[in-house]
Design a protein that fits this description.
mainly alpha, 12 helices, binds zinc ion, membrane, transmembrane helix, RsiW-degrading membrane proteinase PrsW (M82 family), peptidase activity
Length: 401
């Protein structure tokens, strides 16, 4: 049969067009029920792991979920017990560590010299620490952002949190992804997104360490607030903030990489992504600050509302990321189909890393399960023989004898 979207010849048995990813059976033209990077999930979903870790979610979804769950539990318990130095350290490092494990899992580095990648992110971390120290310690807010504040918001604080911090911090978060995404090895849409997430998560870690240095160095005595405030603060800064920063910066990174071969660079789309990320950041900072005044002095309500506000923003961002990546993967495949298909899946006998069915030559999508070949780590794309036959270990990319 002929695919109605890209006019390629598609075998009668196909469920999805292997060139453009079109669902040729159900007529769901936009594939709303089959997310390109995870076809068994709908596009509009709040599933975190398959959103921020799109390349590995098919293989080890539980590892990341369990690791994140344990870290969250540990943070809440230590904060509830008043062990704030431990709680804030666990909060600051949990998501960065899980994300590093993910990058190692999907073998993102592959042949690239690790020093280049490490240098890009050490730079992000140093800039994050210096800038956070400058605005929080040298310029200083007139009240804390932990909630339970007296009086009313100050205009100077709002200017700082709605303008200076979002704009400068987002520019800092763009440095690493732009350096890496402009290397030919990493010009893919998914790479740009992933590097953006890394930069956001890394920035959040250093920002948290600087902002809460007093908690870390102050021993086990708390800052005189309630347990509810402590738990809200560590959950907000350790788990919600890195994901908000990461997905917003990731969206801009994906626009920098663009759809086709090579990177698109500083296009209007990248500028729009950058402004969107700054706006998200301003909404996050400003919202948490303003909600901190609800309930008045010593109240826990303000900090809990800050967590709720962060979750709402994160939910909206997750949907946005999934929509952008989904459309991007489908659009890129349509463009490639017009040129006769791409070489993402190489070899005469490549197999889908998700369902292990054979891939047709020049596939951008698996014709059986509809998974995007580009959503799979590059090392696993050209899998020559299925796992069961040779002991090929998809998690390490190695073949055991
Ligand atoms: Zn097609
Ligand atoms: Zn498949």
């Amino acid at each position: 049969m002929v695919c109605p979207r890209c006019n390629s010849d598609v075998p009668e048995v196909s469920h999805f067009c292997h060139h453009c990813g079109n669902d040729v059976r159900s007529g769901d033209a936009e594939r709303k029920k089959a997310y390109a990077a995870r076809p068994d999930e709908p596009v509009a979903s709040f599933r975190l792991v398959s959103t921020i870790m799109p390349q590995g979610s098919g293989r080890q979804p539980y590892t990341y979920k369990v690791a994140l769950g344990i870290a969250l539990l540990l943070t809440v318990v230590t904060a509830a017990l008043g062990a704030l130095p431990v709680a804030i350290m666990v909060a600051a490092f949990s998501i960065p560590i899980v994300y590093i494990l993910y990058l190692y899992d999907v073998n993102l580095w592959e042949d690239e010299p690790i020093p280049v990648v490490a240098a890009a992110f050490v730079l992000t971390g140093v800039l994050a620490a210096v800038f956070t120290w400058l605005w929080s310690d040298k310029i200083q807010l007139s009240t804390s952002t932990f909630g339970g504040n007296d009086g009313s918001p100050a205009g100077r604080d709002l200017l700082l949190l709605l303008l200076l911090v979002p704009v400068v911090s987002e520019l800092i978060r763009q440095v690493g992804p732009l350096i890496l995404a402009s290397r030919p090895r990493y010009d893919d849409l998914m790479d740009g997104f992933t590097f953006g997430v890394v930069a956001g998560v890394g920035y959040a870690c250093f920002e948290t360490l600087v902002l809460f240095w007093g908690w870390i160095s102050g021993g086990f005595a708390g800052p005189g607030s309630s347990v509810g405030t402590w738990i809200s603060v560590v959950v907000l800064h350790g788990f919600i903030k890195p994901l908000v920063y990461g997905s917003a910066t990731g969206l801009a990174g994906a626009e920098f990489s663009g759809l086709g071969e090579g990177y698109d660079g500083f296009t209007p789309r990248w500028v729009a992504g950058l402004i969107q990320a700054m706006a998200v950041n301003a909404l996050f900072q400003g919202g948490v600050y303003l909600l901190g005044f609800v309930g008045g002095h010593g109240s826990t309500i303000g900090s809990i509302l800050g967590v709720v506000w962060g979750l709402l923003l994160l939910g909206a961002l997750i949907i946005r990321v999934r929509t952008v990546l989904h459309k991007g993967l489908l659009e890129a495949a349509l463009e490639a189909a017009a040129r006769g298909g791409s070489n993402h899946a190489s070899g005469d006998q490549a197999f889908c890393s998700r369902c292990e069915m054979p891939l047709l030559p020049h596939s951008d999508f698996c014709s059986a399960c509809g998974n995007s070949v580009r959503s799979v780590p590059k090392s696993a794309r050209g899998t020559a023989v299925p796992a069961a036959a040779t002991g090929y270990d998809a998690t390490t990319g190695e073949t055991q004898a």
